[in-house]
Amino acid sequence: MSISRTLATTARVLRQLRHDRRSIALMVLVPCVMLFLLRYVFDGSPRTFDSIGASLLGIFPLITMFLVTSIATLRERTSGTLERLLAMPLGKGDLIAGYALAFGVVAVVQSLLATGLALWGLGLDVIGSPWLLLLVALLDALLGTALGLFVSAFAASEFQAVQFMPAVIFPQLLLCGLFTPRENMQPVLEAISHALPMSYAVDAMTEILRQPDPTGDFALDVLVVAGCAVLVLSLGAATLRRRTA
Q1: Where do the ABC transmembrane type-2 domain residues begin and end (predicted)?
Q2: How far is the C-alpha of 219 from the C-alpha of 179, rounded, in Å?
Q3: Residue 215 belongs to a domain
Q4: Distance CA 148, CA 168 (A)
């Protein structure tokens, strides 16, 4: 890998995103809109919003980054741009890292806006540090980016990329502990939930909601989410194809 090539790829992707207002709106504004709607869905029960708002603050960015990243990467391949880039002295690792950095910049903006809105605009009440909340939201967005880059290698069209969401995201959403504690699930499902990164993202947000200081469990949850993001990015580089068959 080359730092200069990776940064050049990052700059190119950011220039493209700057002219794609719909994608920017989807990545940056939609999580904020969803949190806003959620707050007033539970207008008569603010404690309910407090109990699930922190978890969804991590889940919404993950989902939007997954969707946009998978489609954007697939578009590069189907248009022939990816093939032309890889014909140059640009490695797969450079390309994946460049995309991850570019979407990571967007993820920082997204996480700042969503966290700021939840805490100071919608009154989300958490005991832990707001900076830890922002950290986990950012890691979740980066995980969504990594998953999107990875699954785009297995889709032949943008429609197929969208179809991966029910297969990759929805099972994690059901088993992450958002709807019911994971220990109350059927044992097989509980065991599966331990292998899904979204479970650790929700656990980390729950720790911030309930604990004033970082705990060992929180540190473990953060490391698992970050490690999964790095692992999936590595798999994305290994499975990246020049063109869609």
Answers
A1: 18-243
A2: 23
A3: yes
A4: 10
